[in-house]
């Protein structure tokens, strides 16, 4: 199973990718995590940190090199889930060429759809432990003691890329650069849209149902209600 997860920042792609990856026994490849690791390196660190903290996109050539190295590892042979790549039409074209070289094809592209303003509030209320990295949310998953990690007692801080001004810049970038991928994959019959504004278990069940459709006759042709952007995505694209 070879999948791409699409959706705006904070929609829950990482959570759902990890759940599905564990069930299928394949790796969930989070480019966010890969980039955060690369941002600590001496070679790429300073330039990557400036881009990420400003809410921009990492250059395509850098992302493609990182992804190619990751897909070449043995654990990707049974399949993989890409979470956060591609993010531009240029990256999608590079991914197509990379998969062609590897004699592989995508099975489906899953789009998680949630209203933008709900996601902004979801992101700006996230907090992370400065000591152990545990994640919290001031509304849905608050710590027992305000400002302190339940696990280790470390100070909870807001990530630089979760500040509201940065979050809104991330959404602007998403609308401009990533939203065109919805039409790109819909035209190839790969897109499956899932309502992400549900409990985690319900979203997971909807993803399973969407993936089951790919095995039906004609699954590689756009289907009514499943082959293009939702009303929310279309409206965002005009914004």
Automatic annotation (TrEMBL):
Subcellular location: Cytoplasm
GO biological process, one term: AMP salvage
Gene3D superfamilies, sorted: P-loop containing nucleotide triphosphate hydrolases (3.40.50.300)
Record-listed AMP binding positions: 31, 36, 56-58, 84-87, 91, 159, 170
Principal place of residence: cytoplasm
Known EC number: 2.7.4.3
UniProt xrefs under InterPro entries: Adenyl_kin_sub, Adenylat/UMP-CMP_kin, Adenylat_kinase_CS, Adenylate_kinase_lid-dom, ADK_active_lid_dom_sf, P-loop_NTPase
Molecular function in Gene Ontology: AMP kinase activity; ATP binding; zinc ion binding
CDD domains linked: ADK
One Pfam family recorded for the sequence: ADK
Associated pathway: Purine metabolism; AMP biosynthesis via salvage pathway; AMP from ADP: step 1/1
Catalytic activity: AMP + ATP = 2 ADP
LID: annotated span: 125-162
Region described as Disordered: 217-239
Top enzyme class: transferase
All residue ranges annotated as the Adenylate kinase active site lid domain in the record: 126-161
Regions crossing the membrane: none
PROSITE patterns linked to this entry: ADENYLATE_KINASE
Stated role: Catalyzes the reversible transfer of the terminal phosphate group between ATP and AMP. Plays an important role in cellular energy homeostasis and in adenine nucleotide metabolism.
NCBIfam families in the cross-refs: adk, PRK00279.1-2, PRK00279.1-3, PRK14527.1
Family: Belongs to the adenylate kinase family.
Domain notes: Consists of three domains, a large central CORE domain and two small peripheral domains, NMPbind and LID, which undergo movements during catalysis. The LID domain closes over the site of phosphoryl transfer upon ATP binding. Assembling and dissambling the active center during each catalytic cycle provides an effective means to prevent ATP hydrolysis. Some bacteria have evolved a zinc-coordinating structure that stabilizes the LID domain.
Assembly, per entry: Monomer.
The protein's name in its UniProt record: Adenylate kinase
């Amino acid at each position: 199973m070879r999948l791409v997860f699409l959706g705006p920042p904070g929609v829950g792609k990482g959570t759902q990718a990890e759940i599905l990856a564990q069930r299928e026994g394949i790796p969930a490849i989070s480019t966010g995590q890969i980039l955060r690791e690369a941002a600590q390196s001496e070679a790429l660190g300073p330039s990557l940190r400036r881009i990420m903290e400003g809410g921009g996109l990492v250059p395509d050539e850098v992302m493609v090199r990182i992804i190619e190295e990751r897909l070449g590892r043995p654990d990707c042979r049974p399949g993989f889930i890409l979470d956060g790549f591609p993010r531009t039409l240029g990256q999608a074209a590079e991914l197509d060429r990379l998969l062609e070289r590897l004699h592989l094809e995508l099975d489906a592209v899953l789009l998680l759809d949630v209203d933008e303003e709900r996601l902004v509030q979801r992101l700006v209320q996230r907090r992370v432990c400065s000591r152990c990295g545990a994640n919290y949310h001031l509304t849905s998953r608050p710590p027992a003691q305000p400002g302190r990690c339940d696990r280790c007692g470390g100070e909870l801080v807001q990530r630089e890329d979760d500040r509201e001004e940065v979050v809104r810049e991330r959404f602007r970038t998403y609308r401009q650069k990533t939203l065109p991928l919805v039409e790109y994959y819909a035209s190839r019959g790969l897109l499956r849209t899932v309502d992400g504004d549900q409990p985690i278990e319900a979203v997971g069940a909807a993803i399973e149902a969407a993936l089951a459709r790919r095995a039906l006759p004609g699954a590689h042709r756009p289907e009514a209600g499943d082959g293009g952007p939702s009303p929310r995505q279309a409206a965002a694209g005009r914004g």
